[in-house]
Write the C-alpha cells for this entry.
Amino acid sequence: MEPQLVRGLGEQIVERLREDIFSGRIAEGEWLREVDLAERFSVSRGPIRDALRQLSWEGIVQTDRNRGAQVAASAPNEIQELIIPLRRTIEGYAVRLFWDNLTDADFERWEAILETMKKACRERDFATASEQDIAFHRFLVERANSPDLLAIWSVIVARVRRHFRESHQRYDNPMDIYREHTPLLEAFRTGDKQQAILLLEEHIR
C-alpha cells in the first residue's frame, strides 16, 4: 500500500529528492541521513522520514533499519533490455486508461514539462533534461489514476534512471531529446489513441 505522506510540503520534498536522484545530483549508493535532509529542507525529521518511506516504496531508495536510507543502484545493462518492453506495456496501458479523460490542465502540465526540457536541451543541461524526460512519462502514468500501475512503473524507472542520463549524453544535438517528445503530445491532442500508443512504443528505447 502506498504510504500516506504529509500533504503539500511532504510531497515537495519527495519531488525534490526524486529529481536529485534521477538527475545524478545525488549519486547511486549515497546514504541519505534524516538529520542532514531535515536541515536542508528546514523541517523536522517527521516529513523527511515520510518522504524516504515514499521513495523506498517507489524503489528509488533502499532502507536499512540500522543504517538508514541509501540510493538504490541502477540495473545492469542486460536487465535494461528486459525493462524496455515492460515500460512499453505499462505506459501503453496507462494511455488506454486515461484516454477519454484528458483535460486542458493535463496538456498544460505536459507543455510545462516540455518547456523546461527545451530550455535544458538548449543549454546542454543533461541532468535537467533527464529529469524532465522522466517527469513527462511519470505524469503519463500518474494520469491513469492507478496506484498499482504507478508503483510498478516507479520501481522499473528507478532501476534504469542511469540509462536516461547516459543515452541523453550521446545526442549530437540535445534538442532532439525535446523534439522526440513533441509528437507524443500532439498525438494525445488529435484523439487517435492507437497512433499515440504506437508512437509511444517507438519512443521508448
Notes: The two ends are 30 Å apart (CA to CA). The chain has two domains: 9-71, 77-203.
